[in-house]
Design goal:
With about 900 residues, the protein is mainly beta. The protein contains 4 helices and 43 strands. The two termini are about 20 Å apart.
């Protein structure tokens, strides 16, 4: 600034403006402290009302307004997600948003229990969430280099309300109930396993969040026998629909910013689950103008414990150097028991029948360390990033199996003990160098990587030389025992160019991926065999993003290739006779598959009408796809082997979503359309003579080529009002598949109509109800229609801190417990046990202790289930007086 006389003006909203006269010369001037005085004025009580969109599209990010969707009192995030337009829970517990699977979950951008989706959605209260963002999360490596890699995931980020970012809050509660079947005549005492205890339901849950500025800690715990996971690390769990599952778990998660340069975080969980499953299936297959049918009944019990520890440190050493250290460790143990009986038919003639009994125990240990180091050079934009990732795993499984198989001419009995051990070590190193070209908008990345994965598996099997009652497993079975070692090495060299601008950015790249596979087999008789082979893949990479207008319209085009290494179970050439009707044959000659993925996205948001539109097209084709080869002998025993497909499976999917308020603050409309086409390949032959089946060199079956077309449409209306919310949703889907081994195509229709209502009554009573009607066509002649009706009545107590609830499920008792699957050339019906209709009485108490200046935002205040306009906090400002500037930090 040139020398002279000046006036300094310092102002901030809510403070009295300060002015000072100063004179500048050719030297630094140090000013005295300038203190601003609050400009306080008491206003009359006001109420601010407004509306915002249920959903906003911001580029490739979907942002849902949580306060636009009403949920029952003390509901968890899972109940909130179910109400989101385009959201769906799959049968195996996964979350899909507009047809894309959610891979991870974060809270305020921070990791929550390692991204465990079940932990988050079942332990975080819905009323603490302000926004639900669906976006693409880059890996830590990509975040530091600025170049997106193949580890980008579609995730959910939950942003908490401003008044929940400091203080202590959460809830604890529990309850019990009974099955409606308990009141049926003869429901107790008919079976030794069926008593009053089998009809009792219980649940308990605690969720405590400690928010201390830069430190956030979450404590969770739960137990129930309601088929609710409430955290299970999202892996190896049982379907929430089939069987009866009991779970118990505790966990702690922390994220802390110790200082501007050092961030730490981590989590620790212990989980236990037990499951009882009773399943019967009937399958019809068609080939060569014949009908093959099998009926199977399975009963099983399973139990498992697992514990998981994760830690993370991000240290910004100085302005040029950053290091991230992420260690992890897991341990698990479990046991299982199973009973099975079966019958196989060709047309109406019985070919074989039998049964089996099995029990097993297993334990596993795994861990690893991921280290990322980033160095920025003095030249702006130039950086060097190193990523070292190592890991190990060990597992041991001991199993006992007794099997009987009968045909008209033969009887086979096997009684055996199997000991399976495996261990794995993997390590990868990636080096990335980024150099700005003629300016910072243009950058070049050169990256090289190397990875090794070494797996050893040892299987020892012993036959029973004693009796069934007094077994002695001492006879070593050479034929079904061996040791297998797999060594997989992969190198890559890639070059990427990136142009970045406010309106658009482009990335183009090329990667070469040579890989080498070595398999070593050692048989029980001392014989060994080695196999070594290599594969070279070239993969171009491309991405184009373009923002139109004020970033409210967005276009993106992506391409990326990915290599998938076969699993040890798919490659290990070990015969397995534990199931006399199904034997898995390893294939040590498998090549890694290489998938090519394309995606085109377009989205737009109108901030005047609050309408959102988005569409995307996904395309995928895979070289050396890993597909099944199934050979059935004349007793219909199946020999299953994974092979590389010489043809390219193709998958295409197109999704269109539109959302708009029809009547502002009152009625919202959403439509979601999906179209798909795919070709799938496998190989199958039936009725092959036992004498010509060579397990060591399993022949390739007849090509099974299935072309599948599908379409679906979902329409929903949501009426949101101060007293009542009513939601109505209709879904219809159509699928048509034609298999070359079957004469006629298979067409199926699925219809579902859902309705829900939340009614707020005086004296803090709330009634919630949801009902769904579903039907199917094209499966079988049996009735597949059902009506599912659930209802809940809540009463708030103790100044709205506590809630007592009575819930009734499947009130009409119409759950079918039937699942039908239409495959390439088969139809399968499954019936299974699951939770019956039950009544549950629960009590929940909320813990609320927030910091000063953060008292606004009670879910019951302001916008009851509605939205605030942009810039107004959810919950609004209403009641009492507002001192302008109170609780608002002064900008620095």
């Amino acid at each position: 600034v040139k020398p002279g006389n000046y006036i300094i003006i310092v102002s901030s909203v809510g403070y009295i403006k300060q002015t000072s006269n100063i004179t500048l010369t050719n030297k630094d001037l140090v000013l005295k402290r300038i203190s601003l005085v609050e400009n306080v004025e008491m206003l009359k009580g006001i109420e601010v009302k407004g509306t915002a969109a249920q959903m906003v599209v911001r580029g490739d990010t979907l942002e849902y307004n949580a306060t636009a969707f009403k949920t029952p009192e003390n509901a968890m995030v899972s109940e909130l997600i179910k109400k989101l337009p385009g959201a769906a829970y799959t049968s195996d517990g996964k979350i899909n948003i507009n047809g894309e699977e959610i891979k991870n979950i974060r809270v305020d951008g921070k990791k929550f229990f390692s991204g465990d989706i079940e932990q988050a959605v079942n332990n975080i209260p819905a009323d603490m969430i302000e926004k639900i963002q669906v976006l693409e999360q880059k890996s830590d490596m990509a975040r530091l280099t600025g170049f997106e890699d193949s580890d980008t995931e579609r995730i959910i980020n939950l942003t908490t309300k401003p008044n929940r970012k400091k203080g202590t809050f959460g809830n604890f509660g529990g309850g019990g109930g009974v099955d409606a079947t308990l009141f049926e005549k003869g429901s107790v005492g008919d079976d030794a396993r069926n008593n009053v205890g089998d009809h009792l339901r219980y649940t308990g849950n605690v969720s405590l969040n400690l928010m201390r500025g830069d430190s956030q800690t979450a404590l969770t715990g739960g137990l129930n026998n309601l088929n609710q996971a409430r955290g299970g690390r999202g892996r190896g769990g049982w379907s929430s629909g089939a069987g009866i599952t009991e779970t118990q778990n505790i966990g702690i998660n922390n994220n802390t910013i110790l200082n501007p340069k050092l961030k730490i975080g981590g989590d620790f969980t212990i989980n236990h689950s037990s499951n009882e499953n009773n399943n019967a299936s009937n399958r019809e297959s068609y080939q060569q103008n014949q009908v093959f049918r099998d009926t199977t009944h399975n009963y099983s019990t399973n139990g498992k414990w697992d514990s998981n520890l994760r830690f993370e440190t991000e240290w910004t050493i100085d302005s040029l150097n950053t290091i991230i250290i992420q260690p992890r460790m897991s341990y698990g143990t479990g046991n299982s028991f199973s009973l099975k009986d079966y019958t196989y038919f060709v047309e109406e003639d019985t070919t074989s029948w039998g049964n089996s009994t099995g029990n097993s125990t297993n334990n596993s240990l795994s861990g690893g360390l991921n280290v990322i180091y980033n160095h920025k050079f003095m030249k702006k934009g130039r950086s060097l990033t190193l990523n070292l990732n190592t890991g190990f795993s060990q597992s041991n499984n001991e199993s006992y199996n007794y099997s009987e198989k009968f045909t008209r001419d033969t009887a086979i009995v096997r009684d055996q003990f199997t000991d399976n051990k495996s261990d794995n070590f993997n390590a990868s190193l990636r080096l990335s160098f980024v150099e700005p070209l003629w300016n910072l908008k243009n950058k070049l990345e050169i990256a090289a990587s190397y990875s090794n994965n070494t797996t050893n598996s040892e299987k020892n099997q012993y036959n029973n030389v004693g009796s069934r009652e007094n077994p002695v497993y001492s006879e070593f079975n050479e034929e079904y025992s061996n040791t297998f070692e797999n060594i997989f090495n992969r190198e890559s060299l890639e070059i990427n160019y990136q142009y970045t601008d406010q309106k658009y950015n482009v990335m183009l790249g090329l990667e070469g991926q040579p890989s080498q596979t070595t398999n070593r087999r050692y048989y029980g008789n001392g014989f060994s065999r080695d196999t070594t082979y290599g594969v070279l893949n070239f993969s171009p990479t491309g991405r184009f993003q373009y923002y139109i207008g004020n970033r409210k319209t967005f276009v993106r085009l992506d391409y990326r290739g990915r290599t998938q290494q076969p699993s040890i179970d798919q490659m290990q050439p070990v015969k397995n006779n534990s199931d006399l009707m199904q034997e898995t044959v390893g294939n040590p000659l498998l090549n890694p598959s290489f998938s090519n993925n394309f995606r085109l996205m377009y989205s737009a948001f109108n901030d005047k009408t609050f309408a959102s539109f988005s569409t995307f097209v996904n395309a995928n084709f895979t070289k050396d796809a890993l597909v099944s080869n199934r050979i059935y002998d004349n007793t219909l025993k199946q020999y299953n082997q994974i092979v590389n497909s010489p043809k390219l499976p193709v998958s295409l999917n197109w999704n269109i979503m539109f959302n708009t308020p029809l009547i502002r603050k009152l009625l919202h409309f959403t439509t979601n359309t999906s179209l798909g086409y795919s070709t799938q390949y496998s190989y199958v032959s039936r009725g092959v003579d036992n004498e010509i089946i060579d397990i060591e060199h399993l022949t390739l079956g007849d090509e099974s080529n299935t072309k599948r077309r599908n379409a679906s449409e979902g329409i929903s209306l949501t009426l949101t009002q101060e007293i009542i919310e009513i939601g109505l949703r209709g879904d219809v889907s159509y699928a048509n598949s034609l298999n070359n081994l079957k004469k006629d195509p298979t067409s199926t229709w699925d219809w579902t109509v859902r309705g829900n209502m939340v009614l707020h009554l005086p004296s803090r009573w709330t009634i919630s109800s949801d009902i769904a009607y579903s039907d199917r066509a094209g499966y079988t002649n049996m009735s597949l229609s059902e009506i599912m009706w659930n209802a809940t009545i809540d009463k708030q107590l103790f100044k709205n801190l506590a809630t007592i609830s009575l819930k009734a499920t499947d009130i009409l008792r119409q759950r079918l417990n039937i699942r039908q699957t239409v495959g390439d050339n088969y139809i399968q019906n499954n019936s299974y046990n699951t939770l019956p209709s039950y009544f549950l009485l629960t009590f929940t108490y909320q813990i609320k202790g927030f910091g000063a200046g953060n008292s606004r935002g009670n879910r019951r205040d302001g916008f009851r289930g509605g939205d605030a306009p942009v810039g107004i906090p959810p919950g609004g400002y209403q009641g009492g007086g507002i001192r302008m500037g109170e609780g608002m930090p002064m900008p620095m």
